[in-house]
């Protein structure tokens, strides 16, 4: 790199993930570490639209409730097993 500037590359989602995996796996001294990856405008825009519609928030809340329900089920199951053996 003649002017010591970072190279910027823009990819669509599948190629972006693959490029990110490659850059993460190379040694710290590699010149690939200076590459700046950017997600293509379509995928960036769709990600923003997903958040604006509330789907990301809805998915996060749904996941929290699912985890909570599973943990409560395990807790109740463990209590009932302990009371059966006592």
Could you describe the 3D structure shown?
- Strand 1 (8-11), helix 1 and strand 2 (36-39) form a beta-alpha-beta unit.
- A two-stranded parallel sheet has the order 1-2.
- The relative contact order is 0.11.
- The chain has 86 residues and is mostly helical.
- The protein is built from three helices and two strands; from the N terminus they run βαβαα.
- Helices cover 65% and strands 9% of the residues.
- The protein starts with 7 loop residues before the first strand and ends with a helix.
- The model has no long low-confidence stretch (mean pLDDT 79).
- The protein has two domains: 1-43, no CATH class; 54-86.
Fold topology:
Elements: E1 8-11, H1 13-25, E2 36-39, H2 41-52, H3 55-85
Observed structural traits:
86 residues, mainly alpha, two-stranded parallel sheet, 2 strands, 9% strand, elongated
**Major beta-sheet overview:** 2 strands, parallel
Instruction: Give the helix proportion (percent range).
Output: 55-70%
Walk across the major sheet and give the strand order: 1-2
Please identify the structural class as seen in this structure: mainly alpha
- As residue ranges, the low-confidence spans are none
Cα(first) to Cα(last) distance is 72 Å
Q: What is the succession of H and E elements?
A: EHEHH
How large a portion of the residues is in β-strands, by DSSP E?
A: 5-15%
Please give the radius of gyration in angstroms: 23 Å
Shape: elongated
Number of domains: 2
Number of helical runs? 3
| Number of DSSP-assigned strands | 2
User: How confident is the prediction overall: mean pLDDT?
Assistant: 79
